Amino acid sequence: MDIDFSALQGKPIHFIGIGGCSMSGLAQIVHANGFMVTGSDMKESAFTAQLKKRSIPVTIGHDEKNVHGAGLVVYSAAIKPYNPEYAYAASHDIPMLERSRLLGLISAHYKRVACIAGCHGKTTITSMLALIMQNTGQDATVHVGGMVDFLDGGVKIGKGDAFITEACEYVRSFLTLHPTHILVNNIDDDHLDCYRDIDDIFNTFVEFIEKLDENGVLLLNQSDELAYRLKEHASCRIVTYNNGGQSDWYLDNVSFNEFGFGSGDVMYHGEKLGRLELTVPGLHNLRNALAATAFACEVFGVDAATSIRALKNYKLAGRRFEFMGERSGVKVFHDYAHHPSEIEACLEAAKLVPHNKLWVVFQCNSYTRARTLKDKYALCFKDADEVIMPDIYPGRDTDTQGIHARDVVAAVNANSAICLYIPTFAEIKDYLLKNWQPGDIVVTLGSGDVNKQQLVFFED
Question: What is the residue range of 342's domain?
Answer without folding.
Answer: 322-458
